Amino acid sequence: MISLVIPIYNEELLIEKLFYRCTQALSTITEDFEIICVDDGSQDRSLEILKSFHKKDTRFKVLVLSRNFGHQAAYTAGLQHAKGEYIAMMDGDLQDPPELLASMHQKLLSEQLDIVHGKRQKRKEQWGKKALIKLFHFVFKRFSQISDVNDVGNFSIMNRKALNAFLSLTEKNRYLPGLRFFIGFTQGFVYYDREDRQDGEAKMSTLKLINLALDAIFSFSDLPIKICLYTGLIGMILFFFAGLYTLISKIIGIAIIGWSSILLSLYFLGSIQLLFMGILGEYVFRIYKETQQRPIFIVKEFYSEERNYNN
């Protein structure tokens, strides 16, 4: 059995295409499959349309969260409810082609892999978004302990053994591509060109992408702390030489009269201290969220072929 997990948030224009393309793509592999669409607090007609397709084909299941918990939490909810021996992940905007799932599944079996990622060769998206994503992948690859995550997103397929290991990771600040690489196992790639969105508006705004990037960097890299350390060391060296210059200029009588240099130094040091406090605050906030032990998501309803229930 194959399970396909798809988070949905305000995608009423795409659900019909999503249903037919995904069912046709999975039918080329096996008729024993399920598609779990996780409604992440949609405010349009997405949930209504999802339920109508569930009535047409009960393999098309609908997991309804009690509110919007975010993209990564919605994926986690779907993965926890997946029953398949092989489990695939795909965004609901159809930028990742479901027709590629057959090739990914075949590679998983033929090469005896545990996880196969879809790796993007080209991105047909707006240049500003592409530039930000390339910058993030460059920084993440250089400064994290994970090197192969470059140009890899959520589009993937894994076996049950890998999924069980993946679900054992319970942190609240989640970057799923990084977590998939963290668990290890044998992994491979299928290369493809990522299409631009055809219908509707992108749900991952620039701010959400930046927040996701920060979660990834703070979770898998010590770069922020190193920035504090190296900036502090450079500042100490610069001010040592500045103090030496000031002392010599005082002795030989060429010191500049005025307080501008002192004020600039104070402003500079104050800004650096605020920057460091902000970085440390990010770590403290993430530690605080982990210690709260709140659930990553809350399920409101689940429409499946066995039963439909309300929590």
TrEMBL record:
Coiled coil: none annotated. It is found in: Membrane. InterPro entries: Glyco_trans_2-like, Glycosyltransferase_2, Nucleotide-diphossugar_trans. The keyword Transmembrane helix applies. Signal peptide: none annotated. It is an enzyme of class 2 (transferase). Residues 3-164 form the Glycosyltransferase 2-like domain. It is a multi-pass membrane protein. Keywords: Glycosyltransferase, Membrane, Transferase, Transmembrane, Transmembrane helix. Gene3D superfamilies: Spore Coat Polysaccharide Biosynthesis Protein SpsA, Chain A (3.90.550.10). Its EC number is 2.4.-.-. GO terms for molecular function: glycosyltransferase activity. It comes from the Bacteria. This is Glycosyltransferase family 2 protein. It comes from Xanthocytophaga agilis.
